[in-house]
């Protein structure tokens, strides 16, 4: 069971081929460069890589505008290079997940070009058309403030086409059985080339009904079951990690009551309340979000993250909560995006404060689910707010103090490397941090190892332990007769807390597996612990002989 559900205790690393390393010298990252960095990723301890889009694309939206689902963009290499990469990852025990961008295509895709050419084209019904501009065309934009409409007029066809995202990304008519059959072919193709699963982009939009007459889209959840059945028929332990920013009441619709739909989903509810907790030292909404998303099928898992390639979406918070996060982490208008989020990377959001960065990542690794790390966050990379929209947080990886941060030999990378200020590659890079035992990089490696050695978090059940202080979060995980208890102080000052682990006699001894400190209970079975400002403790309950006590079932 543990091998089949490998994602339960995984650590996933998200990267873009375009920004990781350029071996060809043309200023764009490629699969050859990524191959050369697999040993770095293996040493970091990650168990899976999530690759952002690399298929053929005109590149108007960082590859999310696909024009050929069955090929690698020539800028990144060839299909042969991709297979070499997946083979190299497999040799190092690393699985590969890729983005599945099937809500829309590029307007340059041959399907759309053919659909425009003739109203009787076989691809005409693969997209969504209207002879007149629908009355609700100015509603439902994914990028408000940048998008003006969801329906755009096409001169060639004399009709409007639907696009939930940018106007150069026409939506596929995913209700069409032929489109669904093609999606299965796409997944089967990449599975055959060594992929272990997919991150499904914009899952709610994929399964929603579309059309000029649709005023309230209806989700077609059976579509998710079809995807799941096909994948597990082709490769038994393959998975889909769905991007679905939904309310907790809808979680089971995506996971399936019997766990027969999506294996994983990103937990946006926890992500947003986590940043509110970091901004205010108030963990109450975070606890509420964890409890609300706790019920799930036994085979399902949450993907937990801090920052990703998009903006930090705060749309699920109340106006007051969102204003508090904006004030703390994105007070300037240029730091905000789409009237709902923050477009900065984690380190500058936290003011470069090592204590707060460690606290945030310790929280990520200890929340119920599987941690997903964004490339460069292990060294504290910054952002370039001069770049438009989300590109500010998509700058090349900073490897060394060599020109262009060791990313490329080209003097003009397509995406500029951060050079100036405290987050420039001269100050923040892998090579310098590799040689510093106290660096953030080496701390992250140790944290990943510690997280992988605590399967209770990925597999077990959690309980919130009362500390009497809303600024201190205490979580206990129980699995197969063992428990871990993890404390986090979100206050900017030292805080003392007293608590009862509530696990019987074993709870009298707590061993900190991060620094070796221990705590012994008083006569009433309660522990009193002093936490530094932004401090944390990872405790093994009952001592370090837990492996001898672990039950087989």
UniProtKB/TrEMBL annotation:
<keyword id="KW-0413">Isomerase</keyword>
<dbReference type="InterPro" id="IPR017853">
    <property type="entry name" value="GH"/>
</dbReference>
<keyword id="KW-0808">Transferase</keyword>
<dbReference type="InterPro" id="IPR006047">
    <property type="entry name" value="GH13_cat_dom"/>
</dbReference>
<keyword id="KW-0378">Hydrolase</keyword>
<protein>
    <recommendedName>
        <fullName>Alpha-amylase</fullName>
        <ecNumber>3.2.1.1</ecNumber>
    </recommendedName>
</protein>
<dbReference type="GO" id="GO:0043169">
    <property type="term" value="F:cation binding"/>
</dbReference>
<dbReference type="GO" id="GO:0016740">
    <property type="term" value="F:transferase activity"/>
</dbReference>
<dbReference type="InterPro" id="IPR045857">
    <property type="entry name" value="O16G_dom_2"/>
</dbReference>
<feature type="domain" description="Glycosyl hydrolase family 13 catalytic">
    <location>
        <begin position="14"/>
        <end position="418"/>
    </location>
</feature>
<dbReference type="InterPro" id="IPR013780">
    <property type="entry name" value="Glyco_hydro_b"/>
</dbReference>
<dbReference type="InterPro" id="IPR006046">
    <property type="entry name" value="Alpha_amylase"/>
</dbReference>
<comment type="similarity">
    <text>Belongs to the glycosyl hydrolase 13 family.</text>
</comment>
<dbReference type="GO" id="GO:0005975">
    <property type="term" value="P:carbohydrate metabolic process"/>
</dbReference>
<keyword id="KW-0119">Carbohydrate metabolism</keyword>
<dbReference type="Pfam" id="PF22157">
    <property type="entry name" value="SupH-like_C"/>
</dbReference>
<dbReference type="GO" id="GO:0016853">
    <property type="term" value="F:isomerase activity"/>
</dbReference>
<dbReference type="InterPro" id="IPR054049">
    <property type="entry name" value="SupH-like_C"/>
</dbReference>
<dbReference type="GO" id="GO:0004556">
    <property type="term" value="F:alpha-amylase activity"/>
</dbReference>
<keyword id="KW-0326">Glycosidase</keyword>
<dbReference type="Pfam" id="PF00128">
    <property type="entry name" value="Alpha-amylase"/>
</dbReference>
């Amino acid at each position: 069971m543990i091998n089949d559900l490998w994602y339960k205790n995984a650590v996933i690393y998200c990267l873009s081929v375009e920004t990781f390393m350029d071996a060809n010298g043309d200023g764009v990252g490629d699969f050859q460069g990524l191959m050369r960095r697999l040993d770095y990723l293996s040493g970091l301890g990650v168990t899976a890589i999530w690759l952002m889009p690399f298929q053929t694309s005109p590149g108007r939206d960082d590859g999310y505008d696909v024009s050929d689902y069955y090929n690698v963009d020539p800028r990144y290499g060839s299909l042969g290079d991709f297979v070499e990469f997946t083979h190299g990852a497999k040799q190092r025990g690393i699985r590969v997940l890729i983005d599945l961008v099937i809500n829309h295509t590029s307007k340059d895709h041959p399907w759309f070009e053919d659909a425009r050419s003739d109203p009787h084209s076989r691809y005409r019904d693969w997209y969504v058309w209207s002879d007149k501009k629908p009355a609700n065309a100015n509603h439902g934009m994914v990028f408000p403030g940048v998008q003006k409409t969801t329906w755009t007029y096409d001169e060639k066809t004399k009709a409007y086409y639907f696009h939930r995202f940018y106007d150069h990304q026409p939506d596929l008519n995913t209700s069409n059985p032929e489109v669904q059959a093609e999606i299965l072919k796409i997944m089967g193709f990449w599975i055959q080339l060594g992929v272990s699963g997919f991150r499904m982009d914009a899952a709610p939009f994929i399964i929603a009904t579309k059309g000029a007459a649709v005023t309230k889209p209806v989700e077609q959840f059976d579509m998710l079951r079809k995807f799941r059945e096909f994948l597990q028929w082709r490769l038994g332990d393959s998975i889909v990690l769905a991007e679905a920013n939904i309310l907790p009441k809808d979680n089971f619709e995506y996971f399936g009551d019997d766990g027969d739909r999506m294996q994983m989903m990103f937990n946006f509810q926890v992500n947003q309340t986590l940043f509110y907790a970091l901004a205010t030292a108030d963990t109450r909404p975070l606890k509420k979000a964890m409890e609300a998303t706790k019920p799930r099928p036994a085979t399902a898992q949450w993907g937990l993250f801090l920052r990703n390639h998009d903006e930090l979406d705060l749309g699920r918070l109340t106006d007051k909560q969102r204003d508090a996060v904006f004030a703390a982490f994105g007070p300037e208008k240029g730091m905000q995006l789409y009237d709902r989020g923050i477009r900065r990377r984690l380190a500058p959001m936290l003011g470069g404060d090592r204590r707060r960065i460690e606290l945030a990542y310790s929280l990520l690794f200890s929340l119920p689910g599987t941690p997903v790390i964004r490339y460069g966050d292990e060294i504290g990379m910054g952002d370039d707010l001069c770049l438009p929209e989300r590109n500010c947080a998509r700058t090349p990886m900073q490897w060394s103090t060599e020109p262009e941060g060791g990313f490329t030999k080209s003097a003009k990378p397509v995406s500029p490397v951060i050079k100036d200020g405290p987050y420039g590659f001269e100050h923040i890079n892998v090579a310098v941090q590799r040689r510093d035992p106290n660096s953030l990089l080496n701390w992250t490696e140790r944290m990943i190892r510690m997280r992988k050695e605590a399967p209770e978090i990925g597999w077990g059940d959690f309980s919130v332990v009362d500390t009497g202080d809303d600024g201190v979060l205490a979580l206990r995980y129980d699995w197969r007769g063992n428990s871990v208890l993890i404390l986090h102080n979100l206050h900017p000052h030292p805080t003392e807390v007293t608590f009862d682990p509530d696990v019987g006699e074993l709870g009298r001894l707590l061993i900190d597996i991060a620094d070796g400190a221990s705590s012994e209970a008083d006569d009433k079975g309660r522990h009193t612990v002093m936490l530094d400002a932004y401090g944390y403790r990872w405790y093994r309950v009952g001592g370090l002989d837990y492996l001898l006590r672990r039950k087989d079932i």
